């Protein structure tokens, strides 16, 4: 195996396993910053050894065993021979696949939920909670998080460091809280699970358009929350959204791993079981009798797509109305951009372009690649191919995902061909 190929493989494994690894280590060490450091140490060792020895049959178990050994070495050097050391030493087995599989599959799911509630503690600011969770649960780099926040990388780096120090200094417990404390943190937990799912649904960077395992984990956590809080409509709304979105995974990429846009997907291949589950969760949210919140509204939008037999039969007028309602509940430039797309589909591209052009002056969208991408799509539909090509090329230069960049450059080339005819 070549060194570059090994490094790419290790990076892919890290993105899949890092959240579980950090969660398990946090349970043992009760310090999320130290847990991340130990996980990173295990990653460095893997980068050194795997190019020569090959990828182990169970890389997640290998990383966990290595990190546990590092934890014990650290405590030995620090002379911390207390009960924690004894407990960790007692629970640690040397690497055997069967034993490690059982350990990882046993409590790891609960550990992830505990980690989310820990990082969503009100002792941290809202932005710090989200940034830290994107780092620990989604495996995003500081640069990637900075781009999602539309902020400077140095700002995000400082925010994450301060957040980890604060959790340690305040001795925030590694647990799912009860009672009012649970309800107080629930909205941030839902936001984090939503962001976790979105990162899996459309990866910020890398060689893959989607990260299904991340979506599956977010959906599983959402289902757990729905069992714990059956009377919270937005929990059911988020679960509905994730169920319906997950139904499209088989059609979001083709056999070569290239993105397939929503309007071009083969709807016959959408997972009908997941759609039924999503529609049922949406109905549970509605039956609770409150005004639909942001997740339930987005689920209702997804339901419009799921219930349309073909792309041409999509009820875009209703989708535009739902985006209008969403913009009142959670006003944001990104919601407005999505509303522009819906309006263009319902009433024509010229109407959508008018909204998008107004968003060009929005500072927070300055580095957001989907703004020129949407604008390019609308210009192409209006036959303004030279302008559309420029917008697609601009969007391609801004995205960090290689698959998405290739898609945007292909669209730019199509516009160039159309303009020359």
Description:
The protein has a domain at 177-314. With 421 residues, it is mainly α. The N and C termini lie far apart (47 Å). It contains 20 helices and two strands. Helices cover 73% and strands 1% of the residues. It has a two-stranded parallel sheet with strand order 1-2. It has helices spanning 3-29, 32-53, 59-78, 83-91, 97-119, 126-136, 142-149, 153-169, 179-201, 212-228, 233-246, 249-252, 272-287, 294-306, 316-329, 333-347, 349-359, 370-381, 385-398, 402-420; strands spanning 205-206, 400-401. The radius of gyration is 23 Å and the shape is globular. GO terms for molecular function: DNA binding; sigma factor activity. This is RNA polymerase sigma factor. Residues 185-285 form the DUF6596 domain.
